[in-house]
Amino acid sequence: METYLWITSVWGIYLAAIVFFGGMAWRIYEWSTTPKSPVRLGMFPKPKTKLGRFAKLMKDTFIAPQSAKIEPTMWIFAFAFHVAALGAFVGHARLIHEFPFLPELLGEAGMNTFAAWSGSIAGVIMLAGVLYWIARRTYGPFKNLSVPEDYLLLFLLLGVVTMGDHMRFVYGDIVHAATYREWFLSVITFRPEIPHELLASNVGISLGTHMLFTNLFLMYFPFSKLIHSIGSFSSNLVRSE
Amino acid sequence: MDAQQLTTLAGVIDKKMNRQLKQYIDICARCAICKDACHQYVGTGDFKYLPARRAELIRQVYKKYFDKTGRFVPALYEARDPDDNLLDELYDSAYACTGCRRCMYYCPFSIDTAWILSVAKAILIAAGRGNEMLGQLADAAIFKGDNAEMFNDVMISGFEDIQEEVRAITGNPESQVPVNKQGADILYVALAGAHSIRPAAVIFEEAGESWTISMFEAANYGFFYGDAEKARLITKRYIDEAIRLGVKEIVVPECGHAYRVAEFFYEAWSKEPMPFKVSHILEKVDQYIKAGRITVDKGLIEGKVTYHDPCQLGRNGGKFEEPRDIVKAVTDNFVDLTPNRAEQWCCGGGGGIVAMEEFKDVRLASGIKKVEQLKASGASVLACPCENCRLQIEELNEVHELGLQVWQVIDLVVAAMPLKGKKPMQA
Amino acid sequence: MSEENKIDLELDLKGLLCPLPMVKVSQNIGKVEVGGIIRAVATDPGAMADIPAWAKSTGNEVLQAEKVDGQFVFLVKRVK
């Protein structure tokens, strides 16, 4: 298991980070060096002021009210998924540093309970979102429209979320943030080591698999449709031009 | 098709590439939220009309030829050649599209499917498979522009006939349809049809406007055909005329795409700033009414009146309120369609589709949402600016026996004006 | 001149607004043989420029374009 963890949760992270950041930089470079359309592609209603356009951009990108209106179910799942993913991402910040104020406010045990609850909720919502999207792509026009890329991403995401949830729900009471933090800090400070607590219990399998999927997911990210995470800002801005 | 031909066709994408297009192709998540936004998909349930699918065809070719990841693992994206199979589907999805951009309105990333389809049309044209009818209409318009003197006499005699009709309507023997009037404030670029000139002339004359009529029409089949160069040449005819006459403003008729072409596309095509302002006729009429330059009486129009936003004028042109204000000025019995303004359903007649017989079935099927809206409104009169919309809605009116009177907005205005002459028949 | 021309197809385009008369002529030209003649009657004056322009740009021939009793009568010959 130690080898598995070294591959997935140390060297894999370095590789994924290089590919992810390099890929995203390449994407942004490609976009920014392609000349803009000479035709204004905006549509109405169109805010007249810069601030108005910015506000509309934020609203369209983060809330997508028009999408909510036309397909509420899809919107609820998508919105919940993205919020949960953001929550999970923020929660993972505990891997680097304990949140300010919160532990003092809640106490060590309280903080772990809070993290357990919020992490569990986020994990369940993300799982529900992924399952919803997989189900949606199995029938009718959604199936016809889907290409292997869609299923690959959902498969990777399912792996990430399932193994994350596994760690949360099965080992949540056994292994706490401090242990993971020790490992993660060692990786990002380039003095990698695997703590004994991780090797002592079977959590290592979950962590390793969680990281395996995460690394694959992140490495594919810049080369997939997931770049809507950055591209949607400029495409939504064009709407007001 | 051999490999060389396929590469040439795919190369069209590269030639037309720009940042927006690249992002649209790169970021679409195929969530299919656009499915229920498209009147053609909703009306037919045919997969090829699903907006994301239409765009997907271009994406598949792009992935195969120009995208590094697509070239590395083509199977992941179902990347493919622009072969005959693809072109067959592309022809239907691109030329049937009315360019209403309702899918863009609802898309969480605001992907402009119509913009992607402009590349589709360029590919089809390069393959010699551009729509023949639209191509002919565009060529005829360019021919008229290149040989203007050939048509001078018939045009002027046509305008003289219209002038007689205008005088009969206004009851004023001095009313004019000014031709080639140097230094006029406004150049009115109508459609070829007299119906677009007659009521506008009545309004301009009654408002005491300094105007002159264009020898050319504002309709632009080059735009629908998908050839930016043809579209530019067609627009250039009246832009040059406006420069020659030294006017301050170009006014386009009710026609939806004419406004969009003049206001949003021409400068990009010609790469020159336009030395005058472009206005839509209904902006002017709204101003005349509000400024008291023309008088309209309420009560002359009978029945409940509703209004349809043509996509190119509303969602894509930003003229939501002016036409409504005009209609509300001529009647107290106004009811809006639901949904309306930016969310207005496309009637199904845009993008030149009314001129293409082969799409008649999908066109009529795609009008079902409009029919539902019209029925639900309970209106007996529809004010509808765009020519294409009107042709489509008149046909829907007949097929579905809606018993609706379909009017141009300017005809409605003339009918509500207390004029000394005889009331004109509805166009 | 219309006397010696045999009409192969009659098109009633009365009431149609431009450019529809031109569209209808174009849609129907394929229905007559090369050398065949369509007689079209329109009421929109715009057709007087539209139909000849269409014929010139598509390589067909307008044998006659005349105003008769407030209507516009065209004889269009299919050349290719």
What would a concise description of this structure say?
Chain B has 21 helices and 7 strands.
Please explain how this structure is put together.
- The complex is a heterotrimer of chains A (241), B (427) and C (80).
- Chain A has helices at 2-33, 50-62, 65-70, 72-91, 102-136, 140-145, 148-170, 177-188, 196-200, 203-220, 228-238.
- Chain A is built from eleven helices and no strands.
- Chain A has a single domain (2-36, 68-238), classed as Transmembrane di-heme cytochromes, Chain C (Fumarate Reductase Cytochrome B subunit, Up-down Bundle), CATH 1.20.950.20.
- The radius of gyration of chain A is 20 Å and the shape is globular.
- By secondary structure, chain A is mainly α.
- With 427 residues, chain B is mainly α.
- In chain B, helix 15 links the parallel strand 3 (249-252) and strand 4.
- The longest helix of chain B is centred in the middle third of the chain and has 23 residues, at 148-170.
- Chain C has one domain (2-77): Translation Initiation Factor IF3 (2-Layer Sandwich), CATH 3.30.110.40.
- A four-stranded mixed sheet of chain C has the order 1-2-4-3, with helices on one face.
- The chains are: A mainly alpha (241), B mainly alpha (427), C alpha+beta (80).
- At the A-B interface, helix 1, helix 3, helix 4, helix 6 and helix 7 of A face helix 2, helix 4, helix 6, helix 8 and helix 15 of B.
Query: In percent terms, what proportion of residues of chain C is strand?
Result: 25-35%
Approximately how much helix is present in the residues of chain B?
40-55%
Main beta sheet of chain C? 4 strands, mixed
| Parts with pLDDT < 50 across at least 5 consecutive residues of chain B | none
